[in-house]
Prior knowledge:
The complex is a heterodimer of chains A (355) and B (198). Chain A is of the alpha+beta class. Chain A has one domain. Chain A has 13 helices and ten strands. In chain A, the strands form two sheets. In chain A, strands 1-8-9-10-6-7-2 form a seven-stranded antiparallel beta sheet. In chain A, strands 3-4-5 form a three-stranded antiparallel beta sheet, covered by helices on one side. In chain A, strand 6 (155-162) and strand 7 form a beta hairpin. In chain A, helix 11 (296-308) packs antiparallel against helix 13. Chain A is globular and about 65 Å long. Chain A starts with 19 loop residues before the first helix and ends in a 24-residue tail after the last helix. In chain B, helix 4 (80-92) runs parallel beside helix 5 (106-118). Chain B contains five helices and twelve strands. In chain B, the strands form three sheets. Chain B has a five-stranded parallel beta sheet. A five-stranded mixed beta sheet of chain B has the order 7-6-11-10-9. A two-stranded antiparallel ribbon of chain B has the order 8-12. Chain B folds into two domains: 26-130, 3-Layer(aba) Sandwich (Rossmann fold), CATH 3.40.50.80; 136-195. Chain B is 22% helix and 30% strand. Classes of the chains: A alpha+beta (355), B alpha/beta (198).
Amino acid sequence: MTIQFNDETFRDDYSFKNSDWAIKRFPFPFHEDSYMYSVNMEQHRGGPDGSIYEKRFDVDEHYVSEMRDRAMVLADDPLRCQSLPHMTLAGWDLLELIMVSKSEDYPDLFELHRNGDKWRWVNKPMGIDDSFTFLDEATLPYGPMEYITRQTQGDFCVLDQRDDNLWMDAGMITTQADWSLDFDIGMNFFEWHAPVPLAHEKGIFVRALKFLLSIQQGAPARRLNWTMTVNPLLDTSPENYHKWGIQKTSVTPENIGAKQHLRVELQTFFRLPRSNALVFPIRCYLCCFDDLMSVPKWGRRLHRVIRDLPEELATYKGFIDNRPMMLDYLSAFDDGQPTSMGIWPDRDTEPPLKT
Amino acid sequence: MSKFTFPESIRSRPVYGTLEPRAGAAHLLIADAHGAEAILDVATPDMMAKAHIIYIPKGEPFEDKLRALKPAQFYSGPTYAAAEQRIHKAFADAKMGLQLYLSGTEGVIGQAQHAAMQAGIPHTAIQTEHRGSTARRMQCVHCKGITEDVDVDPFQCAHCGLHLFVRDHYSRRLAAYQGVCIDAEDPGNVPPSKGIYE
Lengths: 355, 198
């Protein structure tokens, strides 16, 4: 299909919205009626037609506007994109991976022409047609990681692998769930996850690291993670928290359905061939409560998950104060009927809401 | 002065040991304030014959005792910033076999450790021991301003004026803890400050 790209904003007037197509393919992150941390990894080898799992790097209707928002964030704060000196080769690996994947997966939108190390990259949605020499930084307007991630939705952590650990040594981070690349760059896997509650004690990070260290070329993996955001704000950075934190208090029983967004991260993991680095894209999908409630199964399930979530997690995810109001809203969409297993909407088989 | 036992914390927070004399071709000892006591405890005549001590007294009375150890080189300076070029030169001039001993406050240990790692000193050659003040070197995540010797939480940023929660999250690259606005969701609601370990 041809994607109609939205002209929308993720700040100020927040004109972002999801089409019916985008709602239907929204990655609802709960496969059952409760939630606890787990190493919920699976292979990233496609998925149902049209789903966000189908392509290696999903492109959707928000692409062009998200890239415009990223450029604004970077203009304000260039430190959101950093690469330690030894990570340049990994940046080229990433550029190659994305250009090859996108040109193969979306031939109507992206073209890559290679003649030895002379490459030409065409990005039609963004109006880019650049020729450059692969592995020669002087031939691109930015470093390779920055160049390609200014054209690819999602945040990107590029992790060096050494001493049986992963090191956050490069990244493009403008749509983050409240963590700072500028502060965390250079940290190892356990250090940058240090503030996460409960998961260390459950051994989650030890198991996750073991899994990630052994990811092979051509065998990427994926998982979903989630949090809550008031307004469709992509840049929920700690740097700007003193500006956006106040928005959490703007939620009322009247506007919660439109303002409160479930924020889902599709995290994927690819081994890079020359550098042996691991790239960890974190793609953010936003959907407001009103739109989620159009799927009866998701309405029932979201109510149960939020109601039963341990207090530490609601606090860490930043919505403990608004949880009672969320539950008032969500309970109207939970008629107590059972739900089917798995994340998919199952609109044809799940019963409508009993009134 | 007795040693402070830090409470259990998160994985990014540094932990400190106790300095031990090690065999080495040269010994570089960097300390501030009560960190001098750790040097006095670890020093041996053999070590001191090949030692370079860089000391920042911060008003504490240990300089004469350190000089009395007769290190091969001794420097005393007013601040870490004042000593920094000398420290960088010491690392740049270092040969294989250098042993590094860092003691005192977290701010000086962290900055010297970062400088050592930047210079390529292997972490196995670096020992650390905390002594004296438990105050923290902190970076405001909003204005990126660094404040030395923060000992209360919340703390008002000396640079941008925001009231900050002083987290345990620590960056070795910045040698600093992270401060995050505490009243962003309820402006003006700032709890009274108390000691970080109270």
